[in-house]
Design a protein that fits this description.
- This protein is mainly beta and about 350 residues long.
- It contains two helices and 19 strands.
- A 13-stranded antiparallel sheet has the order 1-2-3-4-5-6-7-10-11-14-15-16-17, with no helix packed on it. A two-stranded antiparallel ribbon has the order 8-9.
Amino acid sequence: DSLLSVQNKESKDTSWIKNEFVPVTSFIHTFNFDNYRRIYEAYQTPENFYANTYKVEEKLSGDSIYDKTTHYHLSNVFAISLLEGFNKWAKAGLKGFVTWDLKHFNLPDSVGISSYTENGINIGGQLCKAQGKFLHYLATVEATVAGPNSGDLKIDANADINFSLFGDTLSLIGDAFIHRVKPAFYFRHYHGRHFWWDNDNMERITHTRIQGVLSYTKTRTKLRIAVDNINNYTYLAQSYLTEGERHTKTDVTVRQGSKPINLFTAQLIQDFKIGPFNWENVITYQKTSDQSQLPVPDLNLYSNLYLRFKIAKVLNCDFGADVRYFTNYYAPDYSPALGQFA
């Protein structure tokens, strides 16, 4: 009897404990496969509309265009993650990963199809603190160590500090990154009936950003300040001759900026809510050091005014209107054949 009573007492003393398995270390494998296809087809083209005509495998007769490109991307990611707060060697969350990428592209050529295959291996690590209320941070480093993009480097970091103010939370958020990467495949290679380039010797793009955000939940206010610097900015440039309202000799090429481009951004987000009444506002000021390569309007305004209510207590409904306004700037041109701004 005395032994039974002791066992019952121990059972009562520990009955409040929740039996739950918490994984301290995770072994992760992620497999991803994406398949893409793009076709630009035109049955008739105005005379002298394009500057160049290249010999490609004929799909359609006459002056018709049938530019087709396909691309698939397969990636495998293997990672080891140490959970935050459960390891004496790493109080913060710690993750290491290796990525194997396989990319395959098909482009039309003068005879048949040109195929390009790129294999790459990336290694990286991540340091994370997500628990607690005062301080959180996340830092990630990823480097390409094998393949045609070997030498690429990406470093991303962000942190936030949170204070109690007048019964709510004031957050100061900072983030920064530096990316030094080779231009994407289609900046380096493209084949079509009227546009064609192979740029194997392009310089790496270096893009850095430093950004700060001040957020106060109680007043629904956010203030964002950001400074970007871009070296070897890579973009599409479209040129043509004009004869009255008619365009002729159209051409698109890939260019890289010879000088660094600086971009300054200041943005205020202010929302209001009174019962069903909602009013969302975004005011953005931007200044670029090169309007010809990276054009942006100095001032951009967005306002959204609406009522939010329910019909029959189950159907959510928004009823209102929004408006956008921006100052004059050198807006990008558009290339229908590529489906891209230039």
